[in-house]
Amino acid sequence: MISPLPTVLRTEVVPALELLTVPQVMARLQLGRSAVYDLLRSGQLASITLGRARRIPTRALTEFIRTRLEQEAA
């Protein structure tokens, strides 16, 4: 008797959460340091703090851009 091949379970691959530094966000948005920190302070751009370092998830940056585009279109 031939044994069946093992069933391979398909798991979803969760993309790694990419965190950006303030200078990386500055470059992507072509804004100055104080403008980026103003967005963070006002809550328009979400971030996390790791020790003394501020990091912005790429999803937060994408959502910020999407929201701004929708506001501009309205």
Automatic annotation (TrEMBL):
Organism, as annotated: Streptomyces purpureus
Its name, as the record gives it, is Helix-turn-helix domain-containing protein
Q: What are the protein's GO molecular function terms?
A: DNA binding
Residue ranges constituting the Helix-turn-helix domain according to the UniProt record: 19-68
One short Pfam family name for this protein? HTH_17
For this protein, the record's NCBIfam families field holds: excise
The lineage's top-level taxon is Bacteria
